[in-house]
Amino acid sequence: MARIEKRARTGGRTVYIAKWYTITGQDRSKTFASKKDAEAHLTKVRNAKLHGNEFDPASGRMLFREAAALWLDDRKASLKATTYAAHAERLAPTTAESMTRHARLTHKGQPLRIDPSFGDYPLNKITHDDVQAWVNRLVASGRQPSSVRNLFFVVRQILEWAVKTKKLTANPAEHVQLPGNRTASVAKGANKSAAKRSRRRDDPARFLTAAQVAVLAAATPWPYSVFVHTDAWTGLRPGEIIGLRVGDVHLAGEDAGESWLSVAESVAVIDGEPVYLDPKTEGSVRDVPLTADTAARLRAYLAVHPNLHDPDAPLFPGFSAVPLRLPHMRKREPGTVPPSRLSAAVRDAGAELRAARHEDLPPADRQAAALADLSVDEAA
């Protein structure tokens, strides 16, 4: 039952203490200078209970780091394993030593990652200005707009979870100004590399021409050249081509018929290990036709594959016969393709990258569009 107690403080000052019980039976109190203010507060408490909007100020003292852990745990069952791992990485703590050692983790001495920025703050101490200032630091540091938005959306969802669980009355991340889709502003005095990053397009959608694919495949040692050629002419996502198994290759006879790849899985690295997952979308489960040249290369490649007769074996295994790791495919391995050799080959061929702006098409279709000027004979 709600009530007001009148108390005399040292020095003769009189205060009024509003006391009430929460819906869970916890005793709460708040002190006011006048009885009128105390009564007004209890009226708000009663109305909140009546409409199911009761708010416990004490719960807002929970640290952002603790709320983030609870939010992530609540979403584990509904998130894809890769999305869960990405959120966990974004929320991972960063030591002061790491921030000192890695310049990309700070901007003008202020942290950029989520945990150092908000982790030690109680939820009810995080303001709209705090979130906006953090976003501004990310932009000024040269982060791509998409990266800034992805980090911000995680923070906003955690704070929204705090509102839903009655730890906050409002989300301080609402109405925060974010960078646009194509540009990111760089603060005056930012370093040159940050300025260059800011001028890049978000997802420039660059694709190789047929001549460039031929040069690149020729400059790549076998059997990696088969991997390069197959990916270029099928437009598969990195995780999809790495996720191919021997049984996913369907080769027609050498004289006639169609050849294709069955795409039904994708590989991602989670906690340092490659894991087979369902494709990105339902539409990603598909059969991808192969050109005659691609089919011939895969036929020769499979003829010496160490697990030719195991349909579940990775089509493109690493040295340990497990699927290739995505991080390894996104950077050149030492001793594979010397930079000087590749750049010279491209220069001799007179090939130049051309940007294709087909944002409304999926990646496979955009790669196909870049090669659409070829005749059937040239493609074969």
UniProtKB/TrEMBL annotation:
Every Core-binding (CB) domain range: 62-163
Keyword terms of this UniProt record: DNA recombination, DNA-binding
Parts of the chain that traverse the membrane: none
PROSITE patterns per UniProt: CB
Presence of the UniProt keyword Hydrolase in the record: no
Residue ranges of the region described as Disordered: 182-203
One GO MF term attached to the UniProt entry: DNA binding
GO biological processes: DNA integration; DNA recombination
Family assignment from sequence similarity: Belongs to the 'phage' integrase family.
Protein name: Core-binding (CB) domain-containing protein
Native species: Mycolicibacterium diernhoferi
